[in-house]
Design brief:
It is a multi-pass membrane protein. By secondary structure, the chain is mainly alpha-helical. 70% of the residues lie in helices and 2% in strands. The N terminus is likely disordered.
């Protein structure tokens, strides 16, 4: 996921932040894919989309609120994330569609649903883009402290656009490289920690901090776990981009397998590395200004590895940025193609690049960057929190669409109920956190505005339909 960042006096503050089909798809109905991706290729891309600064950096907030119980929260969020992606993957397996999740919302509930789902997702990503770029720039200033922040954000924005200009093939290659780098970094940390704990490496600086009691394990109590849950969910965000790329599968029916493998791998890596991090550094050393991995490595005085992980943070943030740019550009082009956005935005080059939609995304990104640079810290923090919450609201559309379009078994019904309940529970937890609370209400404000626009457009579509029938 993306980490939404703020700064003050050169210190960094983290804030996490669809043609008509039959109403119901019959089990076993399947559209043969015309794509090029294998299931494992999609799984690798998924690792790149989800393993971002939401985990590498934002988990510090969850640690601060919940302590060692963050390990349980990662397991809970992983299961619920799998339920959401499984709902999307099964719709893809039965009928792969361009536009992915918003297309299924449209088929399930009508044009209003696809329209609002698409614009909700686009808005959430645009809100987040500025903070992603700011975070990457701040990480880079760890090495180049005298370089202006605006220049660094402009450089990374340009690089992100260049990768998108190479089209789907270039995007896939870049994200595959990013995924390998990030996963390798986590594996490196796990190996390093396993050498430190028995005293093979860094024995003179090693201090193991295991929980001494149940109270120590559940440091923040039930309320701490509740308010931390939203931040752990953000560490798994990116599955919606994986859903968009699933349209490129050779065999769409293998989409569920990709998600299961990817989430299994990522959960093992998350829990193992986070558990070792908590053992290597005392709880009171973790803070929202730096990655928990950097905190643990600094405590061991492994300075060279700290520099390596700063590089990983930059790659993780840039990977999330590129994924966001690609996803919203493709989403907007699909919306324009189906009439849910201005037709101009469906224009493509001979290489099928949706240049008009990309220009809109670049414009939105520029506004987001300027907002990040000029708004007071707290105001910008609230906006980016709202963007992160809206991203999770889009997951609810996916789950409800699957309940409408698929013939679910009893267990399938239970899975969707659990997913909805946990997402709502995580969002509600922000009401009890003074830092997150304003962002929650701003996200509701965005939903009200989007609902009003959708209502106006619904009336317009009805008039157009009546005029065409006259």
């Amino acid at each position: 996921m993306k980490v939404l960042g703020l700064w003050n006096n050169n210190r960094y503050y983290v804030k996490l932040y669809v043609s008509t089909m039959p109403e119901e798809m019959s089990v076993g109905e399947h559209k043969k894919g015309k794509g090029h991706l294998s299931w494992w290729g999609l799984a690798l891309l998924g690792l790149g989309f989800t393993t971002g600064t939401g985990f590498f950096l934002g988990s510090s907030i969850a640690i601060e609120k919940s302590g060692f119980s963050i390990l349980l929260l990662f397991l809970i969020a992983a299961v619920c994330t799998y339920f959401v992606f499984d709902a999307l993957a099964n719709m893809i397996a039965q009928h792969a569609e361009e536009g992915s999740f918003r297309t299924y919302s449209k088929k399930a509930f009508g044009r209003w649903s696809g329209f609002s789902h698409g614009w909700m997702y686009w808005s959430s990503e645009i809100l987040i883009l500025g903070s992603q770029l700011t975070a990457i720039g701040l990480f880079t200033r760890f090495w180049f402290s005298d370089t202006p922040l605006w220049l660094l954000t402009a450089i990374y924005a340009l690089l992100g656009v260049v990768i998108v200009l190479f089209g789907t093939a270039g995007f896939e290659k870049a994200e595959n490289v990013f995924a390998i780098v990030k996963v390798s970094a986590i594996v490196l940390f796990i190996a390093l920690a396993l050498l430190v704990i028995p005293g093979v490496l860094g024995k003179e600086n090693a201090h193991i901090h295991e929980p001494q009691s149940m109270d120590h394990f559940f440091t923040g109590g039930a309320m701490g776990m509740w308010t931390a849950l939203i931040y752990v969910f953000f560490a798994f965000a990116g599955i919606e981009v994986m859903g968009l790329m699933a349209a490129e599968l050779k065999q769409p029916k293998e989409a569920p397998k990709s998600g299961k493998v990817m989430l299994t791998i990522i959960t093992i890596l998350y829990v193992a590395s986070m558990g070792l991090t908590l053992l290597l550094a005392p709880l009171d050393k973790f803070n929202t200004n730096e990655s928990p991995f950097v905190t643990a490595l600094k405590d061991l005085k492994f300075t060279p590895v700290v520099h390596v992980f700063n590089g990983v943070l930059i790659i993780a943030g840039f990977s999330s940025l590129v994924a966001s740019l690609f996803a919203v550009t493709q989403m907007m082009a699909n919306m324009a193609k189906t009439g849910d956005a201005p037709k101009l935005l469906s224009k493509r080059t001979k290489r099928k690049l949706p240049y008009a939609s990309l220009l809109l995304t670049i414009g939105g990104m520029i506004v987001s960057i300027i907002t990040a640079l000029v708004l007071p810290d707290k105001v910008f923090e609230y906006l980016t929190t709202a963007g992160g919450l809206m991203l999770l609201y889009s997951w609810l559309f996916i789950v409800f669409a699957s309940r409408k379009l698929l013939k679910l078994t009893a267990w399938g019904q239970i899975k969707t109920i659990i997913a909805v309940a946990m997402i709502l529970l995580a969002a509600a937890g922000t009401l009890f956190d003074k830092i997150s609370r304003p962002g929650f209400f701003i996200s509701l404000g965005f939903l009200v505005v989007l609902g009003a626009v959708t209502w106006i457009m619904t009336r317009r579509w009805k008039r157009e339909e009546e005029a065409s029938e006259a």
